[in-house]
């Protein structure tokens, strides 16, 4: 199975990212220059699995997150992770509280472990596991069976460029860009490189459902994404 997707070029400090679903701050992070830049943050998995994505803002050690998955019917939910024991940076264990799609609250625990320069694995007590990329004070996580995570900086023509990782890459980060669709919600060509430098090409179709985005690659992966804005 070929894995792709990804982290943006980190140029310029001080942007405040906002989830478009509710207009609430997600995090301060590095971003590309300009008056306004949008990002698509994606959790993905092989066809037949249910991908999920979480975007956490590090608020003095507490991780305040927005999340969705393939079964949330386009809704964006919340989760707060309060640190219990930290070993280095955000590594450690957390107590979590959040809201399910049916409106009920939940509680649990979360463990975060660093496996690469900016790459972390996550495990929740409900059995979910994830892989995340840290960008400034933002941790973007893809979760689910064989999950990957991707971050794209978007251009005015609807194309995007960024980076990606999965558990299988052992902390490495690949690159990918999509282009040629004439808008974000379209079928695009993709071109990228694996963490080992090998090149690949494919296509990806992006559609919108409520406040979230669904992605389907010609290579078989499916994704769910949240759109953010830096300004």
Structure, explained:
By secondary structure, this protein is mainly beta. It is globular. The strands form 2 sheets. It has an 8-stranded antiparallel barrel. Strands 4-5-6-7-8-9-10-11 form an 8-stranded antiparallel β-barrel. The relative contact order is 0.26. It has one domain. The chain has no helices and 18 strands.
Question: Briefly, what is this?
Answer:
Helix content is 0%, strand content 61%. With 231 residues, the chain is an all-beta fold.
Strand order within the widest beta sheet: 3-12-13-14-15-16-17-18
Tally of separate domains = 1
Number of helices: 0
Give the low-confidence spans: 1-33
Number of strands: 18
Fraction of residues in helices? under 10%
Mean pLDDT over all positions:
85
Proportion of residues in β-strands: over 45%
Question: Could you spell the SSE succession in H and E letters?
Answer: EEEEEEEEEEEEEEEEEE
Envelope shape: globular
Structural class: mainly beta
**What composes the largest sheet?**
8 strands, antiparallel, barrel
Determine Rg (CA atoms, Å). Answer: 16 Å
Give a topology summary.
Blueprint: E1 15-19, E2 25-29, E3 37-46, E4 52-59, E5 62-69, E6 77-88, E7 91-99, E8 105-114, E9 119-124, E10 129-135, E11 138-143, E12 148-154, E13 160-166, E14 174-179, E15 187-193, E16 199-209, E17 212-217, E18 221-230
Antiparallel strand pairs: 1-2, 1-18, 3-12, 3-18, 4-5, 4-11, 5-6, 6-7, 7-8, 8-9, 9-10, 10-11, 12-13, 13-14, 14-15, 15-16, 16-17, 17-18
């Amino acid at each position: 199975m070929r894995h792709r997707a990804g982290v943006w070029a980190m140029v310029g400090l001080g942007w405040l990212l906002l989830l478009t679903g509710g207009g609430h701050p997600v995090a301060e992070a590095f971003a590309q220059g300009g008056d306004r830049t949008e990002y698509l943050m994606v959790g993905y998995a092989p066809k037949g699995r249910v991908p999920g994505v979480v975007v956490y803002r590090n608020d003095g050690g507490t991780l305040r997150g927005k999340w969705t998955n393939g079964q949330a019917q386009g809704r964006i939910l919340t989760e707060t992770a309060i640190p219990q024991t930290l070993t280095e940076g955000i590594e450690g264990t957390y107590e979590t509280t959040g809201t399910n799609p049916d409106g009920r609250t939940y509680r649990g625990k979360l463990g975060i472990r660093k496996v690469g320069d900016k790459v972390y694995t996550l495990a929740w007590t409900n059995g979910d596991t994830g892989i995340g990329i840290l960008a400034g004070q933002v941790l973007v996580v893809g979760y689910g069976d064989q999950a990957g995570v991707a971050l794209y900086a978007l251009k005015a023509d609807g194309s995007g460029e960024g980076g990606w990782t999965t558990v299988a890459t052992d902390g490495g980060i690949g690159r990918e860009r999509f282009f040629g669709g004439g808008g974000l919600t379209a079928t695009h060509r993709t071109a990228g490189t694996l963490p080992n430098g090998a090149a690949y090409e494919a296509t990806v179709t992006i559609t919108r459902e409520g406040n979230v985005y669904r992605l389907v690659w010609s290579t078989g992966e499916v994704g769910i994404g949240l759109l953010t804005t830096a300004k």
